[in-house]
Design a protein that fits this description.
The chain has 201 residues and is mainly α. Helices cover 44% and strands 11% of the residues. 15% of the residues are buried.
């Protein structure tokens, strides 16, 4: 969004997308820890054995979701070659972003610049949707009755007896197929509600 909005300098903070020590993968104030100790072995459960190039070191550990997010960021950055994007994190290297220590950041903008930029984002960056036009296009594309039927069909997949490890694996596959089929149908909004949940499962 920031690059699309026209910003020419972007500083990535808190976007590690990898970790140096697999026992310190999130903030210790997050739900993964209690009194500074892991509640469970995150490295084992999250399958964080993937190694990628580090931003300030040869490599760091990551997991599939983080690595996917890194690739998405790289694609977004590549679309704006005139922008300067700086990666300040001791995590994964992000292609297209320049490695920069937080201590080396120079803040040249004034508080007035900040106020003007914030005012622009709040008041001018977005255009209002014309209600009647949008509703007409939405109703033409998406069928509410189909959405209700698909939610019911999806729910029916969940209630099957005889749960085993293989059955659960097959159930996830069926659910993914169901979501993709919904997308290919192109007349239900079901896919847009559920896609990312299954993509990151």
């Amino acid at each position: 969004f920031a690059l699309s909005a026209g910003f020419k300098q972007l500083y990535l903070l808190g976007i590690d997308l990898g970790f140096v020590d697999d026992k310190y993968h999130h903030s210790q104030y997050s739900g993964y820890y209690e009194n500074g100790l892991e509640l469970y072995s995150y490295a084992t459960r999250a399958n964080s054995s993937l190694l990628v190039r580090g931003n300030f070191r040869p490599y760091v550990s990551t997991k599939y979701e983080f690595n996917l997010a890194r690739k998405v960021l790289e694609k977004a950055i590549s679309a704006f070659p005139k922008a300067d994007v700086f990666n300040l994190n001791d995590g994964a290297f992000i292609d297209g972003a320049l490695s920069l220590s937080p201590d080396e950041v120079l803040t040249l903008s004034s508080s007035d610049d900040k106020k003007r930029a914030l005012d622009w984002v709040i008041n001018k960056a977005h255009n209002p949707i014309l209600d009647k036009s949008f509703k007409s296009k939405f109703d033409t594309r998406f069928n509410n009755a189909m959405l209700i039927n698909e939610v019911q069909g999806f729910t029916n997949l969940l209630f099957n007896e005889g749960i085993t490890k293989e059955r659960i694996k097959r159930l996830v596959e069926l659910q993914r197929e169901f979501v993709v089929d919904s997308f290919l149908n192109r007349h239900s909004i079901f896919f847009f509600f559920f896609f990312f949940f299954f993509f990151f499962f």
